[in-house]
């Protein structure tokens, strides 16, 4: 019974890897399409600020996808997920939000909350790295 559950679990993880890889590939194609379209259209070789922010956001989403893919790949190889990978993904995702956030519209509570979360993630990452280096 346990081996059946493990096989099903591995099958689900394998399907998730394929879907995530497909998402990363399609996101990369979309990023390229958006940039090329904006560069080609008039005025040529000028990209407006909104397009740049959208491109950065999509780029960082792709990076988050790659980090998730690394985590899942680690799970398939080692049978467990390295906690520092999860923290890295969370830091990148929060960084994405901070980079694309319109600070004129953001409330003080939101910014303070994001700062606290980022500080906490950085502290956890630091502790995990120190702990892993001792081994």
Automatic annotation (TrEMBL):
It is found in: Cell membrane. Pfam families: PsiE. InterPro entries: P_starv_induced_PsiE-like. Keywords: Cell membrane, Membrane, Transmembrane, Transmembrane helix. GO terms for cellular component: plasma membrane. It is a multi-pass membrane protein. The chain crosses the membrane at residues 12-29, 49-69, 81-99, 111-128. It comes from the Bacteria. This is Phosphate-starvation-inducible E. It comes from Methylomicrobium album BG8.
